[in-house]
Write a structure and sequence with these properties.
This protein is mainly α. The protein has helices spanning about 10-25, 30-50, 65-90, 95-149. Mean pLDDT is about 75; it is low at about 30-35.
Length: about 150
Amino acid sequence: MDVKFLTPKREGTFIFSMLFCFLLLFNSQNGILFNHLSLAQEKVAGSALQQEKPEEFLPGPGFLEKAANFLYLLYDYIKRAVIFLLEKTIFQQNPKLATFYGEVATFLASLTAIYLLLLLISSAKKVIGVVLLLGWALFFVAIIFRGGG
């Protein structure tokens, strides 16, 4: 019975899921693993020294939240710039149309940027594959020539 669990599509999803899990586990002070380790250390230190209860604090935003905020901020600035340009050039008489078309243009531009990034990654994957193939071939050729001489 020939069963493949990791097809190329599932392999990419698996790798992305694993990276996401590692980010959740080890993400600075908001990570799951870090919080459990620090709680265990506080319990050990608290029982050994009989200290007061540690004061509670609210952790700052984590890496994923900061990244999402940055991307939203970037998107919002681009949207405002496009709306401003449309208001000053094409839609001087009707600024509401500039707002509508500016939002649509920004959304389409962001989708285009994601598409181009995915194209770049897929082409980079091919280039890396060729480089790896050449690297291994040169490695074995060097071993054959050095070992035989």
